[in-house]
Amino acid sequence: MLKCILAEFMKVKRKKFVLGTLLAAWILPVPLTIIVVKAKLSFDILFMFAIEFGFFLILPIVLGIIASSSINVEYDNQTFKNMLSISISKGMMLWAKIIFLIFMSFLYGIGAMVSVIIGGVVLGDYASVLSKLGMAVLLSFMVALSILPVYIVTVLAAKKHIIPTVFTIAYTIVCFISSLKLVRLPLPLTTVFRWALPHISNNSRFINTAGNGRISEWIVTLPYCIGTIVLMSVVSIGLTTVILNNREV
Amino acid sequence: MVTFLILVCSLLFIVCFILCSGMVKTNRQLDTICDVLADVKDGNLNRRILAQKAGKIREICYGINEIVEIMQNRIIEQKISEQSYKRLMTGLSHDVKTPLASLIGYLEAIDGRMVKEEKRDRYVNIALMKAIQLKDFTNALFEWVKLDAKEKVFHFQKLDIVELTRTIILDWLNVFEKKEITYEFQIPETECSMFLDKISYERIINNLFQNIVVHSDADKMKLDMEISDEKVCIDITDWGTGIEEGKLPFIFERLYRCDEARAMEGNGLGLAIVKELLAAHHASIYVESMEGEFTRFKIVFFKNSNKQLQNE
Amino acid sequence: MEYLVKTNGLTKKYETQTVIKNVNLHVKPGTIYGLLGRNGAGKTTIMKMMLGLTKITEGSITLFGKSLCDGNKRKIYPRIGSIIEAPGFYPNLTGTENLKIFSMLRGTVSRDEVKKALEIVGLPYKDKKLYSNYSLGMKQRLGIANAIMHDPELLILDEPINGLDPIGIVEIREFLEKLCKERGKTIIISSHILSEIDLIADDIGIINNGYLIEESSVQKLRDKNQKYILFRVSDSSRASMLIEQKFGIKQYKVEDEAILKVYQTNIVETNIINRFLMENEIDVFETRICNDSLEDYFKKITGGEGIA
Q1: How many domains does chain C have?
Q2: Could you tell me the residue ranges of all domains in chain A?
Q3: What is the dihedral angle through the alpha carbons of C226, C232, C236, C240, rounded to the nearest 10 degrees?
Q4: Considering only CB atoms, which chain B residues are within 8 Å of C65?
Q5: Interchain pair C53, A85: CB under 8 A
C-alpha cells in the first residue's frame, strides 16, 4: 500500500495543475493578508475568510479535480492493465488514490494556514496559532472525505473528463451557497461547515453564534458531522469499488 | 487527562500496526524466497525473487538472483562451447578426410598401374602436394590446439618491429611481383623497440600476406605502419574481392573460410591463429572490408601492455 | 511439467455474444507459441484472461502447473511479463520514471534492472524525453522493456512488433529467440505478421471467430503444407492444358501468365514435365519445389483473405 501511495506521488510529477494550485494555496494568503491590513480588519476575520473561501470553496474544487484526474489518468493511458498484471487490485489502487488525496488536502490546508499565520505574524496580530493549525488539519481531512462522492461520478462518467469537473464545481457551489443561506442540506460539505462555524468565528463581531437563534439551530455537533462524513465516505468508496471492478479494463 | 490517554493509546496502536504489517511483509517475502529456492533446486534456473521490502532482505534477494543467473549463464556457455566443439570436430574431420581421400585416390591410381607413364609423374607430384598440404594442416591444427590451451611457449625479445617488418617484406617482394600485385610500403624511418616473439610476428605478417596472394584476387596491396606514443598500428590493405559484410564478424573464428568452394589452398585456422598470436602480445586485430572493393586488416600493438610482457 | 500454460474449455461471454468458445490451448515450457488470428478473432481476449484482466466465464487456465484462482494469483503473476494491446504509461513522465514506478510496485530483481532493460530494447536511460513525445516504435520498446524487466519465466506478448521498424523487428525477434533457446523461457506471442511468426514460433495456435481451429507444431504444419512444383514458363495456360492432356494432371493452379503450380507431385518426375514442355515449344525458366507458406495455409483454413 505504501508503494502505491508513493507511486501516486510520482505520477503527479510535472502536472502543472497540482504544482500551480499548491503554490497558489501557499502564496495567495499573503496578498489576502495585505488586503485585510488595508481594510483594518482583525486577524480573525482574515482567518475566517481564508477558511470560508479557501477551505470550502477552492479546496473542494481543487481536490475534486485532482481526484477525478487521478482516476482518469489510468483510463486514458490504459495503465490499469499494467497494474493488474502486477497483482495490484483496482481496490488497492483506489485506496491509494484516496489516501493520496487526503495527503494533498493536508498539504494544501496546512500550507495555506501557515501562510495565513505568517501573514498574521507580519500584521502583528495573531492568536492561538496551534489551535488554528489543528483546525486546518481537521478541516483538510474532513473536506477531503466530503469530496469522495466525486469518485463515483468519475467512474460512472466513463472517461469523459468534463462531467466530474462540472459535478465538483456544482457540488461545491451548491454547498457553499446553502451554507451562506443556512439551509439544512445533508451534504457532507455543508455539514462540515455547520460544525466548523462556531470554531472559526470565535471572536467575530459579525457573527454572534450564541446569541443568534437561527444560527445556533443550524450548527451541528461533532458526532453528527463525523457520522455524516463517515457514512458518505463508506458509501462512496464502496460504490466506486463496485463500479471499478465491474467495468472492464 | 482523558484526551491525553486517548492520544497516547492511538499512537501506540498506530505503532503496533506499523510493526505488525512490517513483520507480515517480511514473512511473506521470506516465504517467497523459500519457494523460489525450492524451485531452483529442482532445476528451474529461470526463477527470480522479486524483492519488495528495502533493506537487508532485498540485498539477500538480489544476491540469490545473481547467483542463479550466473549458474544459468555458465550452463549456457557450456552448451555453446559444446556446440562449437562439435562443429570444430566435424569441420576438422572433413579437412583431414578430403585431402587424404584425394591423396589415396592418386596413389592408388599410380599403384594400380592405371596411369600412363607421362601422367604418372604428374600424379606423383600432385600426391606429394596433397601430402604436404595435409602436413601443413596438421601442423597448424596442433599449433592452434596449443594456443587454445595456452600451452604455447613464447620467447619474447626486445626487437625493432620496424626492422623486423622490413625484413619480412623483402621476402615477399618477389611473390607479389610474380602474382602481378603492385605493392606499397609505408614504414617509418625511426626505430621502435617492442617485446615480440620473432617467429610469431613473422607468422602473423606472413599469414596476412598469404591471404592476399591466395584469396583476394587483388592487383594492389599496401602496408602502412604508424608509430605513436601509445601504440603501433599496422594497416594491411588489399584491393581485391573483399569480404561479405555478414561474414566479417566470423572470419577470426576457427575453421572459417570465406569461399567454401575453394577448399584447396589454405585452411580456416590461419586468421584464428593470427588473432591468438596477437592476443599473446596483448595486441588486437580489426578488419574492415567492402565486398568487391577492398579489405583492410588493422593490427594495433599497445606499447604499455607490451612492456608488461617483459615480466611474464 | 508437460505444459506451462494450459487452458481447459476456456469460454468468454459478453452479454450478447460469446467471443471465446471452448478454447483448449497447450503451451510447452521452453518454447515459443504463436497465436494467430484475424483482428477480433479473440487472441487478445485469451491473453487478457490469462493475466486476469478479464473475468473467465467458463473453463479454467492452468499456469505453471497450478490452476489459476484468486488465491494464487499473487504468486503466479510475478513470474509473468506481458504487453497487451497498446503499452500503458504515463505521458507526463519520462520512460525511465515510468519503468521505475512499475518496478517499485512489482518488486525488483536486481539493483539496476531498469537500466538493463532499457539497454536491451535500445532506449536511453534517464533521459529527459517525456513519454508523450515518444514515437510509436519507442512506446512499443518501452512496453517490451516493462515486460522483461523482472526477468520473468513466461512472456505473454500481444503484437510486440507492432510499430517497430524493420531493424527493430529483427532485433526483437533475435532477442526473443535467444531468451527461449538459451535461457529456456516460454513465450506466447500473437501477431498479425504471419511471416514473423513462421520464423520464430515452435508451436502455433490458430484462432478464428473465438474457436481454436488448429494447434500444432510449426514443423508438422510445414510437412503437412501442400508441396507443389512451381514452373515459370512462357505460356502457363497452354502449359497447363498440355500437361493435363498428356499426364492427366488435374490439380494445378495457373497464377498468372507465367506461373504454374502443380500440386500433384508424385504422378510424374519434374524432369519429364520439363522436357515435355520444352519439346512442345514452351520455355521453362524456373522449376522449384515449394511449400505453401504459413499465410497460404492460414487463408485456407480460415476460409478468408488471410489477415486483413
Answers
A1: 2
A2: 28-246
A3: -40
A4: none
A5: yes
Determine, yes or no, domain membership for C149: yes
CA-nearest residue of chain B to C30? B46
Domain presence at residue B43: yes
Binary contact (C78, B50; C-beta < 8 A): yes
Domain ranges, residue C88: 5-223
Whether residues B174 and B274 share a domain: the answer is: yes
Question: In this predicted complex, what is the ipTM?
Answer: 0.82
In a domain, B96, yes or no: yes
- Are C219 and C230 members of one domain? no
Residue A153 neighbours by CB under 8 Å, 6+ apart: A68, A163, A164, A167
Residue of C nearest to A248 (CA): C54
Assign residue C244 the CATH number of its domain: 3.30.70
Q: What are the chain C neighbours of A85 within 8 Å (beta carbons)?
A: 51-53, 77, 80, 82, 84
What phi and psi values does residue B24 have, to the nearest 5 degrees?
A: -60, -45
- Sheet with C252-254, side-by-side order of all strands: C252-254, C259-262, C227-233, C284-291
Angle, alpha carbons B70-B76-B79 (nearest 5°): 145
Alpha carbons B53 and B50: distance in angstroms, whole number: 10
> Which residue type is seen at B263?
A
Do residue B174 and residue B297 come from a single domain? yes
Q: Are residues C42 and C134 in the same domain?
A: yes
> Structural domain tally of chain B?
3
Q: Do C108 and B44 touch (CB under 8 A)?
A: no
CB contact under 8 A, C183 and B44: no
Query: Do C191 and C253 share a domain, yes or no?
Result: no
C60 and C203: one domain?
Answer: yes
Tens place of pLDDT for every residue, chain A, 249 residues? Answer: 888 999 999 998 888 888 888 888 888 777 777 777 677 766 666 667 667 777 788 888 889 999 988 888 888 888 888 888 888 888 888 999 999 999 999 988 888 888 877 777 776 666 667 777 777 888 888 888 888 888 888 888 877 888 888 988 998 888 888 877 777 777 788 777 777 777 766 544 445 545 556 666 667 777 788 888 888 889 889 988 888 888 876
For residues C41 and C304, is the Cβ–Cβ distance under 8 A? no
SS3 B140: helix
A9 to chain C: nearest residue by CA?
Answer: C101
In chain A, which residues have their Cβ closer than 8 Å to the Cβ of C51?
Answer: 81, 84-85
- Asked if residue B234 is part of any domain, the answer here is yes
Residue B82 is assigned to a structural domain of this protein: no
Same-domain pairing of C253 and C124: no
Residues of C within an 8 Å Cβ radius of B: 75, 78-79, 106-111, 150-153, 182-185
Set of chain C residues whose Cβ sits within 8 Å of the Cβ of A77: 88-91
Chains A, C: CB contacts under 8 A, how many?
69
